[in-house]
């Protein structure tokens, strides 16, 4: 973080403040995909399209609207076994889904049902919170308060008084979030095989420069 906490040509007190706000997730994004390989392209398209339709019907049955489901276009490519000798396996058709779920109690049931309906790849579950913008605002206000408190302590120890704020620099929140995750401070996604949402940690950081008044 050193590169984001320094200010060129020092002229006063430059301090870094950070804060975080924890929240219980209320949104889950389930990422799944369908992969089907058939000898002919048309067959691969047809079986994949049928699986897509079945999954959409399953989701509607759980009360999940179409607007909460993002589906990729069907993608077709040749599939090979790269052993010796190389063997042509057929044509692989793929469709992927991102399903946004607001009823977290349904997560396990929905996951099982979409797999039964034809999704044969589960890429993971990401938990989030719908009020992240408001939580980020709280964290930013707390980060400013933390920086101000730190600056006041430095000024008191140095026998000077703080003047007006003359510089405010936002610190990239993603960089801070990754730092929190790296030190076990929470995170936005569940680990593989674990559907417990845990908590969401929203962070903010700021570098503030204060002028100094002597005496």
Note the main attributes of this structure.
about 220 residues; alpha+beta; 3-stranded antiparallel sheet
Question: In DSSP terms, counting alpha (H) and pi (I) runs of 4 or more, how many helices?
Answer: 5
Structural class: alpha+beta
The main pleated sheet reads as:
5 strands, antiparallel
What is the helix fraction of residues, given as a range? 25-40%
Work out the strand percent. 35-45%
Ends apart, CA distance between termini: 32 Å
Mean pLDDT: 87
Using the CA coordinates, give the radius of gyration. Answer: 26 Å
Low-confidence stretches: 182-193
Order of helices and strands: HEEHEEEHEHEHE
**Which geometry do the CA atoms define?**
elongated
Total beta strand runs: 8
Layout: helices, strands, pairs:
Elements (H helix, E strand, L loop, with lengths): L1 H4 L7 E11 L3 E12 L2 H21 L7 E3 L3 E7 L5 E15 L5 H10 L4 E8 L3 H27 L1 E12 L1 H10 L17 E15 L1
Helix pairs in contact: 2-3
